[in-house]
Amino acid sequence: MSRPRKWRSVCSLPPNSRFGPIGSNLEGRQPVVMSVDEYETIRLIDHEGMTQQECSEQMEVARTTVQGMYDTARKKLAASLVDGKPLFIEGGEYRLHDHNGQGLGRCGRGCRWRSRMTEIEGENHQ
After folding, report:
1. Paired residues of 19 in beta bridges
2. According to its UniProt record, what is one Pfam family this protein matches (predicted)?
3. What residue spans define the domains of the chain?
Protein backbone atom coordinates (compact mmCIF):
# COMPACT_ATOMS: atom_id res chain seq x y z
CA MET A 1 0.00 0.00 0.00
CA SER A 2 1.36 3.41 -0.94
CA ARG A 3 1.82 6.27 1.44
CA PRO A 4 -1.09 8.73 1.71
CA ARG A 5 -0.63 11.95 -0.26
CA LYS A 6 0.60 14.97 1.71
CA TRP A 7 -1.17 18.04 0.39
CA ARG A 8 0.78 21.31 0.27
CA SER A 9 -0.95 24.27 1.84
CA VAL A 10 -1.12 27.25 -0.56
CA CYS A 11 -2.32 30.76 0.31
CA SER A 12 -4.10 31.52 -2.97
CA LEU A 13 -3.94 30.84 -6.67
CA PRO A 14 -1.64 33.06 -8.73
CA PRO A 15 -3.36 36.13 -10.21
CA ASN A 16 -1.79 35.28 -13.60
CA SER A 17 -1.12 31.73 -14.72
CA ARG A 18 0.08 32.17 -18.31
CA PHE A 19 3.33 33.86 -19.31
CA GLY A 20 5.33 33.97 -22.51
CA PRO A 21 7.55 35.96 -24.82
CA ILE A 22 5.92 39.10 -26.18
CA GLY A 23 5.50 39.40 -29.92
CA SER A 24 6.74 35.95 -30.89
CA ASN A 25 4.87 33.10 -32.48
CA LEU A 26 4.26 30.44 -29.83
CA GLU A 27 2.88 27.90 -32.34
CA GLY A 28 4.52 24.56 -31.82
CA ARG A 29 6.43 25.62 -28.71
CA GLN A 30 5.84 23.26 -25.82
CA PRO A 31 4.99 25.23 -22.70
CA VAL A 32 6.81 24.76 -19.44
CA VAL A 33 4.25 23.70 -16.83
CA MET A 34 4.89 24.72 -13.21
CA SER A 35 2.58 23.39 -10.52
CA VAL A 36 0.78 25.75 -8.14
CA ASP A 37 2.75 24.37 -5.18
CA GLU A 38 6.06 24.96 -7.03
CA TYR A 39 4.91 28.52 -7.75
CA GLU A 40 4.11 28.97 -4.03
CA THR A 41 7.71 28.08 -3.08
CA ILE A 42 9.05 30.69 -5.52
CA ARG A 43 6.59 33.27 -4.17
CA LEU A 44 7.35 32.62 -0.52
CA ILE A 45 11.14 32.24 -0.79
CA ASP A 46 12.09 34.68 -3.55
CA HIS A 47 9.27 37.24 -3.37
CA GLU A 48 8.41 37.23 0.34
CA GLY A 49 11.99 36.57 1.50
CA MET A 50 11.24 33.51 3.62
CA THR A 51 13.75 30.81 4.39
CA GLN A 52 13.09 27.28 3.19
CA GLN A 53 12.23 26.35 6.78
CA GLU A 54 9.68 29.18 7.09
CA CYS A 55 8.24 28.22 3.71
CA SER A 56 7.90 24.59 4.80
CA GLU A 57 6.03 25.65 7.96
CA GLN A 58 3.68 27.85 5.93
CA MET A 59 3.01 25.07 3.39
CA GLU A 60 2.81 22.41 6.13
CA VAL A 61 5.38 20.06 4.56
CA ALA A 62 8.95 19.02 5.32
CA ARG A 63 11.80 21.39 4.50
CA THR A 64 13.29 18.76 2.17
CA THR A 65 10.00 18.72 0.23
CA VAL A 66 10.17 22.50 -0.16
CA GLN A 67 13.82 22.24 -1.21
CA GLY A 68 12.93 19.79 -3.98
CA MET A 69 9.94 21.81 -5.22
CA TYR A 70 11.97 25.03 -5.17
CA ASP A 71 14.80 23.46 -7.17
CA THR A 72 12.36 22.12 -9.77
CA ALA A 73 10.51 25.45 -9.98
CA ARG A 74 13.74 27.38 -10.55
CA LYS A 75 14.76 25.04 -13.36
CA LYS A 76 11.36 25.50 -15.00
CA LEU A 77 11.64 29.30 -14.73
CA ALA A 78 15.11 29.17 -16.28
CA ALA A 79 13.90 26.93 -19.12
CA SER A 80 11.06 29.33 -19.88
CA LEU A 81 13.29 32.42 -19.84
CA VAL A 82 16.33 30.99 -21.63
CA ASP A 83 14.47 28.95 -24.26
CA GLY A 84 11.68 31.50 -24.79
CA LYS A 85 8.94 29.01 -23.96
CA PRO A 86 5.54 29.92 -22.52
CA LEU A 87 5.12 29.21 -18.80
CA PHE A 88 1.83 27.81 -17.48
CA ILE A 89 1.07 27.53 -13.76
CA GLU A 90 -1.45 24.78 -13.11
CA GLY A 91 -2.10 21.57 -11.21
CA GLY A 92 -0.09 20.14 -8.34
CA GLU A 93 -0.70 18.62 -4.95
CA TYR A 94 -2.14 21.50 -2.97
CA ARG A 95 -5.06 22.76 -0.95
CA LEU A 96 -5.93 26.41 -0.57
CA HIS A 97 -5.86 28.00 2.87
CA ASP A 98 -9.19 28.62 4.49
CA HIS A 99 -9.01 32.29 5.41
CA ASN A 100 -11.99 32.03 7.73
CA GLY A 101 -9.89 30.37 10.42
CA GLN A 102 -11.33 26.92 9.82
CA GLY A 103 -9.98 23.82 8.16
CA LEU A 104 -6.59 23.28 6.60
CA GLY A 105 -3.92 25.91 6.66
CA ARG A 106 -2.91 28.97 8.50
CA CYS A 107 -1.40 31.86 6.64
CA GLY A 108 1.62 33.62 8.00
CA ARG A 109 3.45 36.76 6.99
CA GLY A 110 3.48 35.78 3.30
CA CYS A 111 -0.31 35.67 3.05
CA ARG A 112 -1.38 37.32 -0.20
CA TRP A 113 -5.06 37.23 0.82
CA ARG A 114 -4.41 39.02 4.13
CA SER A 115 -2.33 41.76 2.50
CA ARG A 116 -5.04 42.25 -0.16
CA MET A 117 -7.72 42.58 2.55
CA THR A 118 -5.56 45.11 4.43
CA GLU A 119 -5.24 47.21 1.25
CA ILE A 120 -9.02 47.11 0.68
CA GLU A 121 -9.74 48.10 4.28
CA GLY A 122 -7.25 50.97 3.98
CA GLU A 123 -8.98 52.22 0.83
CA ASN A 124 -12.39 52.04 2.52
CA HIS A 125 -11.21 54.20 5.42
CA GLN A 126 -10.02 57.05 3.19
Report:
1. 87
2. DUF134
3. 30-124
One-letter amino acid at 48 equals E
pTM of the model: 0.76
Q: In Å, how far are 23, 46, 65, 117 from 114, measured between CA atoms?
A: 35, 19, 25, 5
32 phi and psi angles, rounded to 5 deg: -90, 125
* Positive or negative: CA dihedral 117, 102, 61, 92: negative
Cα separation, 70 vs 79, in Å, equals: 14
Measure the CA–CA gap between 84 and 70, rounded to whole angstroms: 21
Beta strands in the chain (DSSP E): 8-10, 18-19, 32-34, 87-89, 94-96
pLDDT tens per residue across all 126 residues of the chain: 777 777 888 888 888 999 988 877 767 778 999 999 999 999 999 999 999 999 999 898 999 999 999 999 999 999 999 998 999 999 988 888 766 654 444 566 556 555 554 555 555 555
